[in-house]
Amino acid sequence: MSAESAMVALESRFLRDYPREAARRLERMPSEQAARVFNAQPAEVAVSAWEQLPNDVQERLIEALHPEAAARILNEMDPPFAAELLSLLDAAEQARWLARMEPATAKLTRGLMSYPPDTAGRLMDPRVASFRAAMTVSEAIERLKGFKKNRALRELFVVDDEGRLTGRVEIQDLATARAEQLLRELARPLSAAVLDTAPREEVVEKIEQQRMPALPVVSVAGRLIGVIHQAALLSAVQEEASLDIQTMVGVSRDERALSSATFAVVKRLPWLQINLATAFLAASVVGLFEDTIAKFTALAVLLPVVAGQSGNAGAQALAVTMRGLALREISVRHLPRVVFKEVNAGLLNGLAIAVVCGLGVWVWSGSAGLVAVICAAMVISMVAAGFSGAAIPILLNRMGFDPAQSSSIVLTTVTDVVGFFSFLGVATSLQAWL
């Protein structure tokens, strides 16, 4: 065996046995070097690592691959992953790659691409087999033997003569049943199904509630058209959660750890400029009380304490509310209830923090007036933070804005302005006691 053949064999074993680690190494390589690895491997070996690559790396690599190798990988990929990759390309590139794919696979992929992003139709695997209710157990088993690939099949989906989903049959029930029994006699009621147009949040909610390994997807007419596997959904949910973390701090959803510095600057700089404008707004509030701060320099020392505590309290309320929106636990109609809860939490937390903070200020300054100022400001700012953290994402969502991308900036502005104004405003009104 030549040295080159030995290297290809080692790469094949590594890709097959450790696809995640292989993907991490490949994404750090230059495109031409990574493409040589994929070009030399069979599609069934290459695809396990390929599907672990970030979308932007796949988009970059597909152009570097030999066209035949790229087509083999696209044919071997699960249709939802292939549709996700091709959706990143422009229309001309999509048409070029779809033309290179096998007709049946291209048809499935094209159908998935017709669905809006983040819907059940985009997440589903259309390669789902349905079994007629009038089919016997022996006929179903024979059909199962002909499957080229199944994904740890645990149940069969049963349909009527019109193709409408009516029930499911557990594999263990099929294995222990008499050969002549009909599937309708073994079928159990469906615990859940979802429309192909349902949003991702509804899919997550149903799978979490029912603890299902796979969720059937049906058309408006009730026909079975696909299935969402729990493992695939978990991957999508984890990606969405990580993207929300980025957008909450003003980072683009498209940016990755290995993206270029220029790309990062283009995506981040506008939000940094917005943050700068809001920082000047908060600073202008401090400027209104310049004379008070000049008379009582201790106020400048304690000012960040109030703003910092209210900022943290607001972030807590924001995180809980954002999660409720993402899982569809709450909507606009829940606004009064959510705000009331967070305001009460802010009040109680504010009182508790004010007591501890007041004791610390008394030990440090010995001024009863300064203790009264910071205690009053702490309660006011914590209540305002709870209100803002709950109300802002719900209202932004109602107005059609992405709450993950906008909420934190608005919240920071509100907590800083209210924190500074409450502290310095109370100090100004009680300066005779300071």
The Cα radius of gyration reads 29 Å
Low-confidence stretches: none
What is the CATH T-level topology of the largest domain?
A: Tetracycline Repressor, domain 2
Strand line-up of the largest beta sheet:
1-2-3
Structural domains: how many = 3
Q: CATH superfamily of the largest domain, called what? A: SLC41 divalent cation transporters, integral membrane domain
H and E string: HHHHHHHHHHEHEEHHEHEEHHHHHHH
Beta content comes to 5-15%
Number of strands: 6
Q: Judging from the principal axes of the Cα atoms, what is the shape?
A: elongated
- Specify the structural class: mainly alpha
Mean pLDDT: 82
Number of helices: 21
CA distance, first residue to last residue: 88 Å
Main sheet makeup: 3 strands, mixed
CATH architecture of the largest domain: Orthogonal Bundle
Write down the CATH class of the largest domain. Mainly Alpha
* Helicity range: 55-70%
Task: Describe the protein.
By secondary structure, the protein is mainly α. It folds into 3 domains: 3-114, Annexin V, domain 1 (Orthogonal Bundle); 130-241, CBS-domain (Roll); 261-433, Orthogonal Bundle (Tetracycline Repressor, domain 2), CATH 1.10.357.20. Helices cover 68% and strands 6% of the residues. It has 21 helices and 6 strands. It has helices at residues 3-17, 19-28, 31-39, 43-50, 55-64, 67-76, 79-86, 91-100, 103-113, 120-123, 137-145, 171-176, 183-186, 200-210, 230-248, 261-288, 290-295, 298-326, 335-365, 368-398, 403-429, and strands spanning 130-132, 155-159, 165-170, 194-195, 214-218, 224-229. The strands form 2 sheets. The chain has a 3-stranded mixed beta sheet. The chain has a 3-stranded mixed beta sheet with strand order 4-5-6. A hairpin with a 5-residue loop joins strand 2 (155-159) and strand 3. Helix 18 packs antiparallel against helix 19. The radius of gyration is 29 Å and the shape is elongated. The model has no long low-confidence stretch (mean pLDDT 82).
